[in-house]
Amino acid sequence: MNVVDSSAWLEYFADGPNAATFARPIEAVAELVVPTLSLYEVFKRVFVLRGERAALEAAAMMRQGMQANLTDSIALEAARLSLEHRLPMADSVILATARAHGATLWTQDADFADIAGVRYVAKGTPRVNEPSTPPYAGRTAPRPRTQSPKRTPRPRS
């Protein structure tokens, strides 16, 4: 099982240098666990950067995996992990969710760099043996929103 951190989802959607690394766990939807907190974080960020349509497309892709809600036991474990590893709230919830599902956590967030059960890839450092094919090859993906020129009102006759 795999959990993909919000930073990795955003890298994948932006087709950044580490996108191919994160494509494997993201596209293996039968083994993908998606914390609802990740859905929130990614939807919000894509909405701000690219608009609602792209955010809805990103959310639809994320919903292909198994949704994992924040339960009371995950919340308590997240609090413990936050104290143990000095993690921010969202990071500790994502890690606790991964552990609750026996999943590997994939991320490029340096807060996770030395934590067991985490596949950390530093930002901007793609692995040498990764394929060069963009992760969106052959399917629709969120794309940057283009700014349309402002229209000036026509004078009324």
Strand order of the largest sheet: 3-2-1-4-5
Quickly give the CATH architecture.
3-Layer(aba) Sandwich
Topology pattern, helix = H, strand = E:
EHHEHHEHHEE
Q: Estimate the helix proportion, in percent.
A: 40-55%
**Main CATH class:** Alpha Beta
Which consecutive residue ranges, at least 5 long each, have pLDDT under 50? 128-154
Q: What summary fits the major beta sheet?
A: 5 strands, parallel
By secondary-structure content and strand pairing, the structural class works out as: alpha/beta
What does this structure look like?
By secondary structure, the chain is of the alpha/beta class. The protein has one domain: 5'-nuclease (Rossmann fold). It is 44% helix and 11% strand. It is built from 6 helices and 5 strands. It has helices at residues 6-13, 19-27, 36-50, 52-62, 72-85, 89-100; strands at 2-4, 32-35, 66-68, 104-107, 118-120. A 5-stranded parallel beta sheet has the order 3-2-1-4-5, with helices on both faces. Helix 5 packs across helix 6 (89-100). It starts with a strand and ends in a 37-residue tail after the last strand. Residues 128-154 have low confidence and may be disordered.
